[in-house]
C-alpha cells in the first residue's frame, strides 16, 4: 500500500485538479497572484510530479466505463457530496465514462418517519408495501437523484438523472425470498411486498448518454412488464448495470475501508474463489456478504474488477484509479 506521504501528495494534487476543473481558468493571473504562485514553486512542482506519475493510470482508464455505487456517509454529508461530484467531473475530464448508481435507505426511512408511515418486518426483513414503495420512488428519483445530477453540473460536468423505469432501464420482478428454519429444516416463502429482483438491464439509454458526453445518474427503481414499480437494492442494481455494460470497474463505496481479515487487516486483492473460502470460514460476515456477492457476480458477468472501498476517504475514487496502491479491496476473477 502506498505511503502516507504519497497519499497526502495525491490528495493535494486531486484537490488542485478538482478545483481547476470546477472553475473557469482566468485569461491571465493578476500580478500579486502570480508572485504568490512563483513563491510556491516547490509545492507546485510536487503537485505536478504527482500528476505526471498518474499519467499511466489516466491512460489505462481513458475511454473505459466505470460504474460507481454511491451511498453512505459520502452521500449524506454536504461537503463530501460536493467533493464526490468534483471528483466524478475530473474522471470524466480524464476520459473515463462514469455511470453512477445511488442508494438512499436512510433518507427513505427518514421520510417514512416524517409521514408517520409505519414499517413492518418479516423475519427481520423490511416489507415494502404500496405506501413504502411510493415514498421510496419519491425520495430516490426526486430529491436524491436530481440533487446528485445538480451537484455534478455545479462542479462543471453534465449529468442527467434517471430511474430504472426510464426506457425500461431496469426490468424487475417481485423478489422471491425463501428462508429455511435451521431447527426443522422447513422452508417458507416470505412476502416482502414490492422489493424487486432485477431480471434485465437495458443499456441503450446509458450508452446514448455516455456517447453524448453526459454522466448518467441512476436511481434503483425497477419496473416489470405490467408497469409495476419495485424498489431494488442499490448495490445489486449497480452490479447488474456494470455487468450489462461490461464495465472495466465497479466501485462500491461503503463506510468501511474494504474487506478485513479476522485480525482487522485489509485484504488489498481477492479472487472470486478466495471470497468463497472466506465466507465459508466465517471471515466475511454480516453486511459485507451481499456486497461481495454483488462484486463476485459482476466479475463473473464480465466486469474487469470490482472494488469495495471507503467512500468516507477523501478522493477515494481518484486514489483507487490513479495510484498504484488503490484505496480498498479489489475483487477479480
Task: Specify the helix fraction band.
Answer: 40-55%
Q: Average pLDDT, to the nearest integer? A: 86
State the end-to-end distance: 21 Å
- Structural class given helices, strands, pairing? alpha/beta
Strand arrangement in the largest pleated sheet: 5-10-2-1-13-15-16-14
Total domain count: 1
Kindly report the oligomeric state of this protein: single chain
What can you see in these coordinates?
- With 333 residues, the protein is α/β, with parallel strands linked by helices.
- It has a single domain, classed as Carbamate kinase, CATH 3.40.1160.10.
- Helix content is 46%, strand content 21%.
- Strands 5-10-2-1-13-15-16-14 form an 8-stranded mixed sheet, with helices on both faces. The chain has a two-stranded antiparallel ribbon with strand order 3-4.
Short description:
With 333 residues, the chain is an alpha/beta fold. It has 13 helices and 16 strands.
